[in-house]
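User: Round two. Same drill as before: sequence, then structure, for each protein.

Assistant: Same drill it is. First protein:
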Amino acid sequence: MTAVDYAFAGIPDVVSTGTTLGLRNAGSEVHEMQVFRLNDDVAQTLPELLALPQEEAMKLITMVGGTFAGPGEDGEDAVTVEEAGNYGMACFIPVGTREMPEGSPGASQGATGPPHFVVGMLKAFTVGE
């Protein structure tokens, strides 16, 4: 899949179990792909989940994996979705982050904008049998 400023491109609404997702960053900012499975009893939409306090939202999802990539780069990791269900992916990097930070990939190196998912960098999808 491809990350652009500020969206994910190249992922259909439904993928098969066992699909492996990789990240190519075609944007001008650092992007990440964090993939999570919504628990079976969750009725909230992806935007509703992302609006919840983090502690509350984490009780409603299961993290599957993720990766980061600087502008023009590919993420080092891939994520395989093994279980059928409803999934989401989001970029939590702050708007304005143009360089991969030293140390923790999620650090913002001074960028103070909202997370990319707030400006549209999120994607709901279903994994089917």
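Second protein:
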Amino acid sequence: MAFNIQDIIGGSVADGVAKIISLFKLPPEAALQHQEALEKIQADMQAKIVDATTAEINEGGQIIQAEAKSQSWLPRNVRPLLLLLWGLLITLNYIMGVVAQFAHIAYSPVVLPDWVFKLTAIGFTGYVTARTWEKVTDSDN
């Protein structure tokens, strides 16, 4: 009396799997109804994501405006100072390599990932654009 898996599941393994899968198969009408419901849920989720992103951007803009209108010099200047510091650190990273070669010191610049340069470019572009817009509209005064 040998152990036979086909006797247990009533045929080949493929037939058993096919029987299980056929239990989950929906008629085309029901599948279409579920597809429409799924698309509606996805559209609702996309709308909620857009609304949440818009609200977050607006709140961030209000924070920046409040800092810019502050009477204290620190909140008004912290973003430009941090951007300046960031740019100086990146620049000095490469200048020190050149200076070290002239001084015969073994120094190599830190290899920075691409996102650092992209983030810096975005920051400087945004700051310069914002300051230019303020000067054009004369909103400084």
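The CA atoms of residues 42 and 51 lie 14 Å apart.

User: Perfect.
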